[in-house]
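Quick start: read one record
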Amino acid sequence: MTSKKSDLEAAIDAAARILDSATTIGTLGHIGPDGDAIGSSWGVALSAHKAGKTAVASFGEPFVIPRHFEFLNQEVVVPAKEFPEGLDVVVSCDSASAERLGSLAGAATSAKKIVVIDHHVTNTGFGDVAVVAADASSTAELAYRVLQRLGWPIDADVATCLWTGVVSDTGRFQYSNTSPETLRVAAELLEYGVASDVVGQELYERAPFGYFGVVSAVLGRAELDADLQLVSTALFQEDLDSADITYEETDGLIDLVRLADESDVALLMKSLEPGSVMASLRSRGTIDVAAIAREFGGGGHHNASGFSFDGVPEDALAAVKAELAKQRR
């Protein structure tokens, strides 16, 4: 992992050299992309396109663009099935490992070079060049620095993609990963013409009416373990079916689950297929939820992480409680 400032600057220089010499470039976010994965990968590809490169952006199956990201410029975005192999460079954005690229991991490794831009402490250091800084607020913040080094075009569309990544991963600049450098980057992005009010409305102030029913169901089955200071709940496919909404439209659920005063750790288990659970963990700071996720092959950050679990929600909950108890000792 890139750590020292001098090492990071050297990695940015190396990434810029590779990208500048490339003709064909593809950018990839992780499967089930969040705002940072989409914002950073689309922003880099869009800037590359404007610099005269042949550039595309995508993410692995299931390729479903969440509704709240549809406002972003998508002229370089292609479905996963149309992402080409054998590119000069693939840029992996916001993925801690090649496995997180899902169905497009093979397309990534078929490229002549892989550049990794990421801020996860759990990053495995894959790729030919890794621009990785765990103390960066977001991958988008690092992507902006790479684009600056390249001198590629950054207009309102590119800046809006990057702004989306920064805003998403800092919780609208309220999380502890918001640094003075983050705010400097944010100020510069605003100068390119980002409409921050529009981004805020699209990301945080819109939802289909059926979402209300899902919120009611998920919060209605929430449980509090007072001893472990853990609040947990589950989302089932039946919840989505009855509300006629998609999984991608439920991103904000974990932020509601974590509100309970009596807890400092929140767990949302998404059981959408029999025998499989996708879990999201959040911490107020005392507990390292990335360490818990790593025990199950997942990863993330100290205060936000996720993992996949083979089994049912009850078993996933028991496993998390066991790991949480170790940190409480």
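The radius of gyration is 19 Å.
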